[in-house]
């Protein structure tokens, strides 16, 4: 089951915003069939708490401006090592590089389809 065009557009907007703030290893995953409570994940990394917060801010601003979309829940902002933005139809994970390695979301969902985020730079992962 492929994600809808609406979700794809929002996922690409979030990925572009993250890329603009120098997020690394940006990955989109179609998790709808696997977990059933959301359609897609966006996972990206940053080396510092400050950069994680800048990425999260940029994602929220762009999704609000371009799609009038706001997160239903925001978790981890105070920790600075893993911020989760839950939009219902998609969940965005912005993780410190060490947290990403430790928790291995990429490994946990290695069997789901990756989403073409239409990024044209070195941070894209297909």
Can you tell me about this structure?
With 126 residues, this protein is an alpha+beta fold. The protein has one domain (5-115): Beta Polymerase, domain 2 (2-Layer Sandwich), CATH 3.30.460. It is built from five helices and six strands; from the N terminus they run H-E-H-E-H-E-E-E-H-H-E. The chain has helices spanning 5-20, 32-35, 49-67, 97-103, 105-108, and strands at residues 24-30, 40-46, 73-75, 82-86, 90-96, 113-115. The protein has a six-stranded mixed β-sheet with strand order 3-4-5-2-1-6. A hairpin with a 3-residue loop joins strand 4 (82-86) and strand 5 (90-96). Helix 1 packs across helix 3. The longest helix is centred in the middle third of the chain and has 19 residues, at 49-67. It starts with a helix and ends in an 11-residue tail after the last strand. Mean pLDDT is 93; it is low at 122-126.
Structure summary:
The protein is α+β, with helices and mostly antiparallel strands. It contains 5 helices and 6 strands, in the order H-E-H-E-H-E-E-E-H-H-E.
Mean pLDDT: 93
The CATH homology group name:
Beta Polymerase, domain 2
Order of strands, main sheet, comes to 3-4-5-2-1-6
Give the low-pLDDT segments: 122-126
Helix content: 25-40%
Tell me the total number of β-strands.
6
Task: Break the fold down into its secondary structure elements and pairings.
Layout: H1 5-20, E1 24-30, H2 32-35, E2 40-46, H3 49-67, E3 73-75, E4 82-86, E5 90-96, H4 97-103, H5 105-108, E6 113-115
Parallel strand pairs: 2-5
Antiparallel strand pairs: 1-2, 1-6, 3-4, 4-5
Pfam family, one: RsfS
Organism: Nesterenkonia cremea
InterPro entries: Iojap/RsfS/C7orf30 (IPR004394), NT_sf (IPR043519)
């Amino acid at each position: 089951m492929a994600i809808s065009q609406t979700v794809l557009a929002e996922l690409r907007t979030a990925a572009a915003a993250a890329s603009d703030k120098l997020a690394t290893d940006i990955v989109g995953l179609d998790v709808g069939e696997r977990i059933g409570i959301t359609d897609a994940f966006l996972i990206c990394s940053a080396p510092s708490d400050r950069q994680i917060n800048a990425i999260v801010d940029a994602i929220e601003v762009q999704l609000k401006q371009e799609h009038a979309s706001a997160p239903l829940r925001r978790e981890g902002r105070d920790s600075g090592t893993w911020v989760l933005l839950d939009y219902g139809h998609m969940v965005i994970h912005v993780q410190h590089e060490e947290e990403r390695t430790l928790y291995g979301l990429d490994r946990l969902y290695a069997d789901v389809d990756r989403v073409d985020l239409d990024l044209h730079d070195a941070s894209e992962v297909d």
